[in-house]
Design brief:
Largest sheet: none
Organism: Grimontia sedimenti
Distance between the termini: 17 Å
Strand content: under 5%
Radius of gyration: 16 Å
Number of strands: 0
InterPro entries: Sel1-like (IPR006597), TPR-like_helical_dom_sf (IPR011990)
Structural class: mainly alpha
Number of helices: 11
Protein name: Sel1 repeat family protein
Helix content: 55-70%
């Protein structure tokens, strides 16, 4: 499990670089409905893509994500991106998120949203890597796969996705990797996270 440490290692870096290369052709827009591509979420996402790093254009994109929260078809993605763009991630932003809680809540996960998560997670996008990691680790919508869940959470965590760092810490506790879990928790705290889980790494 040493590859899960916060330091970037060659094997994971190589995988991320391959995904980043694919990112130039992602997503495949033909896979999505016209309503999805006309949504406020998608417009906000387009603003983010114009930045040199993932959160550079959050100020321009966030109003679109805020509007997207009112559309059940893009509620999950809009909520996850609003949280991603927040300077200080808060649990309150995710109280109605099915993906965050790994259970179907009021809005559920729309089909286009699910396809988007699968598509963008393979395009090295940290928000979707976090979402897919949560799904796989908890067996929500997908079959449960702890190893793959931790893998995608680690990819997002290495891109400074705070919720992924917290989720990865909790996932590592579940498999007994307490020392590494504590390091990821500390890194999330350094990035401004509140402690969203009641569980804490123990020595």
């Amino acid at each position: 499990m040493k590859w899960l440490l916060p330091a970037m290692l060659v094997t994971v870096a190589a995988c991320s670089e391959e995904a980043a290369h694919t990112n130039t052709q992602c997503p495949t827009l033909a896979n999505y409905s016209g309503a999805f591509l006309d949504s406020d979420f998608y417009r906000g996402w387009q603003h983010l893509q114009r930045g040199e790093y993932p959160t550079e254009n959050c100020r321009q994109a966030s109003p679109y994500f805020l509007n997207g929260v009112n559309n059940s078809a893009v509620f999950e993605l809009s909520t996850l991106y609003l949280d991603f763009c927040s300077e200080t991630p808060q649990q309150d932003a995710l109280t109605q998120s099915s993906i965050y809680h790994s259970e179907r809540l009021a809005t559920g996960v729309d089909y286009d949203e699910f396809k988007w998560v699968l598509d963008l997670a393979l395009c090295n996008s940290p928000v979707e890597q976090y979402a897919l990691g949560q799904m796989l680790f908890n067996g929500f919508i997908t079959d449960k796969d702890v190893d793959k869940g931790i893998y995608f959470l680690s990819l997002a965590a290495r891109q400074e996705h705070v919720q992924a760092q917290l989720a990865l810490s909790t996932a590592l506790l579940d498999i007994g990797e307490n020392e590494v879990a504590a390091q990821w928790l500390a890194k999330a705290q350094d990035n401004g996270a509140n402690i969203l889980s009641e569980r804490r790494p123990t020595d």
